[in-house]
Amino acid sequence: MSKNQSTLFLSFDDIKEIIHQVGIDQLMDDMIFDIESAFKSYDITKTTTPKRSGFNYEKPYVGLLEWMPLLKVEDEIMLKIVGYHPENPNQHNLPTILSSLTNYDINTGRLKSIMDGTFLTAMRTGAASAVATKYMALSDSKTLGLIGCGAQAITQLHALSRIYTFESVLVYDTDNETLNSFEERCKALDLEAKITKTSISSILEQSDIISTATSIGVGEGPLFNTFETKPWLHINAVGSDFPNKIELPLSFLKQSFVCPDYKEQAFIEGECQQLPENEIKEDIVGLINNIEKYKYIQQETTVFDSTGWALEDYISQKLIIKYAQKFELGNYVDVEYKPEDSKNPYHFLKVNKLAELS
Amino acid sequence: MSKNQSTLFLSFDDIKEIIHQVGIDQLMDDMIFDIESAFKSYDITKTTTPKRSGFNYEKPYVGLLEWMPLLKVEDEIMLKIVGYHPENPNQHNLPTILSSLTNYDINTGRLKSIMDGTFLTAMRTGAASAVATKYMALSDSKTLGLIGCGAQAITQLHALSRIYTFESVLVYDTDNETLNSFEERCKALDLEAKITKTSISSILEQSDIISTATSIGVGEGPLFNTFETKPWLHINAVGSDFPNKIELPLSFLKQSFVCPDYKEQAFIEGECQQLPENEIKEDIVGLINNIEKYKYIQQETTVFDSTGWALEDYISQKLIIKYAQKFELGNYVDVEYKPEDSKNPYHFLKVNKLAELS
User: Fold this and answer.
1) Of A11, A91, A109, the CB nearest to B65
2) Closest among B240, B198, B204 to B222, alpha carbons compared
């Protein structure tokens, strides 16, 4: 099977090798830069991202499996498969979010690559928050709050720390074990900031920037009802990604400039589902491309409604493929059957028979 | 990575080895049996198959890439990715249809397996026609017609030959090379029937059973307008799988008992898109489960509107996995990242650092 017709399979060991060569900070910087560039140059006539769809269920555990497609016109198609199973860490020692990424040649429909999407989802979600925060929060922000201290909180902290030098990180989680292990889990990042466990109300009061990344149940939100905050508080609302799953109270959204990653999706499953459409002035693409007009929002309370956009996954996939090619990583495997005679699925039978005769 | 958390990767070499061990005839018999059983026992409360969706485009070549999901309630999820690129054989020496199949554990969302779907699509499409034909055509049918002699025609002939002993196979294709190579391509099947190249009108006149599997263009159908046929002619209309892509004339559908594989899909992209919903009495599940009531249709002209149902793919996937496990084939690979600490995507960084110290 020649390289140009087979499938590049990148295991997580390959991604680890990329990180070993490039460094985790540089990879995050690349991802932030590439996602910001993709937001800036986004053109709906060249890149199509239909709303994701999927299956959700209550049994045997609460769960959701979705497919997130992206069409790069006359170029390629990406498909992300992503599962959200909040019982995974406790029941199966697996991440809440498991994912894989594939892409397809638009000339032939052939599968070009398959790779992990679990790690990349965590990274790109952090990177997307970093991009949005750069435009929506004050540049001298010193205090970060994290509500929800699971896997996504690590990359929120990492990505935001690439843009801001935090003095203090205030953290909260409903699960004591998750809360207590957070500082230990962050050690590999070598950050200077002091990490302090505290209450949601203290986080709201003291933070310049907050990321919420919780597994709050459908219909059980918001995470808080009353709040006192700094007048310029920016929140990255990361956890809301399902109908009736919300993290922030309507009253906070009403007083704030709310910017979704991807409007159509956010009205169905983001914080934006609480708001009438006419209250959303811009999505992240509109905001970034009209930054002079919206400079004032850095002084006000703001929300980045991050539902997770296939464009971010596409960018992270491309970045990994670029490095895999640079370092000659991965294996070329034969997933789809490609008979020598394209009109004969049983071609190999003939070959077998000839082999038997010889 | 332990077997129970990693992904079973089956290359086409593994599928070939299954065929080597089981035999292509036995595998087709299994597939026919399993698909018939699945149709018989189909329960919409236990198996959900949303309509497929996808991207279609005209450039650089006419093409379509679709995802076909299936949920087996409280059990697993299958996803078929399938591309349809009719220029593939001539432009790229690749099959028109390229496909891969994956399935996911419903407990955790983890990717359980990945395998070829190209070969299996061809086989299951043949098997589905065989099942439908058994119920819709006369049991002593002797003459088979094939309009369109590409990859799908091979498995139509193979599958139908497992149910019927044909004396004569009449074939037609618009492409002379495809037509002329057909007999050679069928040799591995060791069939007794005489294969004769002829016109569409002769095929219509003389056949007891016809399968149409063409790449006729959108808006360019039907394949014929006038027809004289045996009063009991049964047609498997395999090629119609896209809005405005049709193979059969409305007048033939109007006089015939038309049975789709999957109604909702057939009204959008099958022959059924030409008919009002109330003219469809039964789908294949209804037909098979009320066979006494519909015995009479074997004497009439009938059409199996085969758009390709995810249920058939799921059955073929399960069959291959069963044999792969029996013969201990395939490799367990690590697609999704599963950190030892499920709440720390950067867990490996810590491990790396400890390794560097030692």
Assistant:
1) A109
2) B240
